[in-house]
Write a structure and sequence with these properties.
The protein is α+β, with helices and mostly antiparallel strands. The chain has a single domain, classed as Gcn5-related N-acetyltransferase (GNAT) (Aminopeptidase, 3-Layer(aba) Sandwich). 31% of the residues lie in helices and 26% in strands. It is built from four helices and seven strands. It has a seven-stranded mixed β-sheet with strand order 1-2-3-4-5-7-6, with helices on both faces. Strand 2 and strand 3 form a beta hairpin. Helix 1 packs across helix 2.
Amino acid sequence: MPPLLQIRAVTEADLPELVRLDTEAFPSGPYPYFVLRQFFDAYGDHMLVLDDGASILGYVLATAPNRDLSWILSLAITPGLQRQGLGRKMMAGILDHLRSEGVKEVRLTVEPGNDSAVVLYRSLGFTPEGAPRKDYFGLNQHRLLMMLFL
């Protein structure tokens, strides 16, 4: 990771930057501000950001543990910085945090055609839960469910 980049806990002041980043990373379906606001309020202590001192370049969001289970809801890296190991570092940070809270199982969903994300999650030990689920997020919004035992 370049020396100016820091992985840190999210703050309320980061919300506008999270909206900008989410729009860049997921142009066809970014979270609206109010959703990121509610995620911050509900799960802010399970959200890390990648900060270069001027802007937010990445974030990862997990749910609080529920019966030893947590979900990764989002991982986003600024498009120009993808495939440089930053997503792996973000995931390692949140998985360490979840492990320290006693989480035993982590789940996530990924678009089946997002090969780089699937490869990343597999390399971290996530395994698919069967075939991709058709229309999981609505019409033509298929998702591969993956799980990891910590």
